[in-house]
Specification:
The chain is mainly beta and 109 residues long. The chain is built from one helix and seven strands, in the order βαββββββ. The protein has a single domain (4-108), classed as Jelly Rolls (Sandwich).
C-alpha cells in the first residue's frame, strides 16, 4: 500500500497552513506539535484516527521508519546536507512511526 504524502516544504514552519492541509486530507482538525528530535527512539501511533508525520529531510543525520502493524513500509534517512524538502505523511489507524538521532519531525494528531 502506498503512503499518502504531500510536499510541504514551503509551509514547514507555518502551523496554520499545515493544519489546513491536514484538515483538507482528513476532514478533521488537528493539533500541530513542535519539531522534535530524539537520541533515543521516539514513537508515535497507532492512533484511532489518521495522523500526520512531517519530516524535515535536511535536519541532520537520522532515521524515520513507518510501520503498518508489524511491517516496515518505508524508511527515510535524513541528512544535514540533503537537498530534499519537507514531507507530510498521513498514517492511518494501524500505522505507527519512530525516529531517532537528529531526524527532525512534527506530528499532527
Amino acid at each position: 500500500m502506498a503512503l499518502q504524502t504531500v510536499d510541504v516544504t514551503k509551509y514547514a514552519d507555518d502551523d496554520n497552513k499545515l493544519k489546513e492541509i491536514f484538515k483538507d486530507k482528513t476532514g478533521r482538525d488537528g493539533t500541530v506539535y513542535d519539531w522534535q528530535t530524539g537520541r533515543n527512539p521516539q514513537v508515535r501511533g497507532p492512533y484511532k484516527e489518521t495522523f500526520a508525520l512531517i519530516i524535515k529531510h535536511n535536519s541532520g543525520d537520522g532515521t524515520v521508519k513507518i510501520f503498518k502493524e508489524d511491517t516496515n513500509l518505508k524508511t527515510y534517512q535524513t541528512y544535514s546536507e540533503s537537498n530534499d524538502g519537507v514531507t507530510m505523511i498521513f498514517l492511518g489507524p494501524t500505522y505507527y512511526c519512530w525516529w531517532l538521532a537528529d531526524a527532525k519531525v512534527k506530528c499532527i494528531i
